[in-house]
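Researcher: Next sequence.
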Amino acid sequence: MTTRTSDSGPRRRALLAATALAALGVGSAQPKAVAAPAARRVRLTLPAPTGPYRVGTVSHRLVDQDRPDPWVASRPSRELMVSVRYPARDVERYPRAAQLLPGEAAGFDRLNNFGGVPQGRVDWAATRTFAHQGAPPARARRGAARPVLLYSPGVGDPRSLGTTLTDELASRGYVVICVDHTYDGSAVEFPDGRVETSRLPEEYERAKREGTVVELLRKTCAVRVADLRFVLDRLDALAPMPLDRSAIGAFGQSAGGFAALQAMHDDRRIAAAVNLDGVLAYVEGTRTPALSPRSPRTGWTVPC
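Model: Next structure:
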C-alpha cells in the first residue's frame, strides 16, 4: 500500500526536505570552527556497565569477495570492520579499548551529527571504553552458548557511537557485534592504518541535484542490510566463544534501527530486532513511500 500526502505549502516542503537531510546526517554549510589546542580539548568519560560481567572486545576486518563495494566502483570487494563485545574475565592485564582510533576520531570530528559541538573542541580519540582489548571470555553457566546481537549505528555514525549500550549488554551476558558500514560511517580505520571516510555527503548533494534522494535512502538501507547478513555468514569466526544461533537479534539507532528490522524480515536467522528512533519510511519531497504488506512469517508490517 502506498501512502501519499498532500502538499500544504512551502513550510511542509521545507520540513520534509529537512527530514531527508537529517536522515543522511548532512546539515547546511557552517563556518569551520578553529580547532582548540589539544590541552584545552574536552575529554569525555563514559558510564561504566552495570551487569555482572566485565567486558572484552576484539575487532575484525571482513572482506566479502562476492560483492563489489556499492559506494566505490573501483573496489572489487566489500570491506568491513566489526567489533565484538563479550562477557570477559581476568581483564586487569588487558588495556581498555579506545572508543575511536585516531583516524576514526579525526573523521568523526569533521563529520559529526552533534550540531552544538564545534569541530576541534572534543578530543574524541582520548575516550576509553570499559571493554578490555583481547581479554579472555567468561565461561557461560554449564557451558551454555551466548546469545548474539548485531548493532548498526545511525547514518554517518561510527560503530562505536553506541559503546555505552553495547558494553552494557555485554556485561549482562550478550555477545554484541558492532558493524561499521564503510563509506557510510564518518570514518573507518582498518588494521593497515588506512582510513576510509564517508561518501554520503557528496552522494546526497548529487541526489539533490538529480532528484533521486529517495533512491539514495533505499540504497543506503539495502547496503546496510547486506552488510549485516554478511556478518552473520561469518559469525563462527568472529567471537571467541560458543554462540547460540537460535538466539540472534539485531538492533540499531536511526537508519541502523530501520536496517535491523529489514534484516530480520529478510533473514530467518534473526529472531528479533529493535529499532531505536529510526523512521520506517523513505521520505523526500511530498511523498511518503510505502511500508510493504504484512510479512507472512510474523504478521507484522515491515519496511520494503
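Model: The first strand starts at residue 3 and ends at 4. Residues 204 and 210 are 10 Å apart (CA to CA).
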